[in-house]
Design a protein that fits this description.
It is built from five helices and four strands; from the N terminus they run βαβαββααα. The protein is α/β, with parallel strands linked by helices. It has a single domain, classed as Collagenase (Catalytic Domain) (3-Layer(aba) Sandwich). It has a four-stranded mixed β-sheet, with helices on both faces.
Length: about 170
């Protein structure tokens, strides 16, 4: 699994942990190990621009997901794993928005960034939360993935619920 990460936010974050939680989510979801993912951390100004341009939103948001080939995600042997790498897409995170949300819900900025990373991965895999049933499925899966990762890496579990996940 190839995951590239770039921190252009100006905020010091643990990119190794973000990579680890993304890899955990992709592994747990059975995504082909040849898949490629890009994660970009940006500042408020750039996130505001992206949110306006691509989501027609006002102001910055916490996470955006840009799938490359929505219909061609190879989830592994059960779906006939290919030998060519699959470009999953890009996840864009804004640590400053994550910090504000973390404060509002009472957990750390790192925990919020981990949650947003898993949220972005699920969007790249085709999950959505526009309808109540979709929201229950996506957030339930998000909670399970986060809890499993946190139990394995930090010795604690999370409820996996979003602080205030914005439009993605």
């Amino acid at each position: 699994m190839s995951i590239e990460i770039a921190n252009e936010s100006g905020v010091d974050v643990d990119t190794d942990a973000i990579l680890a939680v993304a890899r955990h989510a992709l592994d747990e979801m059975g995504v082909n190990p040849l898949a490629e993912l890009s994660i970009l951390l940006v500042d408020l100004e750039y996130m505001t621009e992206l949110n306006h341009r691509w989501m027609d939103g006002d102001g910055p948001t916490d996470v955006l997901a840009f799938p490359m080939d929505e219909g061609s995600v190879d989830h592994g042997p059960g779906e006939g794993a290919g030998t060519e790498p699959t470009l999953l897409g890009d996840i864009v995170l804004c640590p400053e928005v994550a910090a504000k949300q973390a404060g509002n819900v009472g957990h750390s900025t790192a925990d919020e960034l981990h949650l947003l990373t898993v949220h972005g991965v699920l969007h790249l895999l085709g999950y959505d939360h526009a309808e109540p049933e979709e929201e229950r499925e996506m957030f339930g899966l998000q909670a399970r993935l986060l809890s499993g990762w946190q139990a394995k890496n930090t010795g604690r579990a999370s409820d996996g619920q979003p602080g205030a996940v914005g439009p993605v």
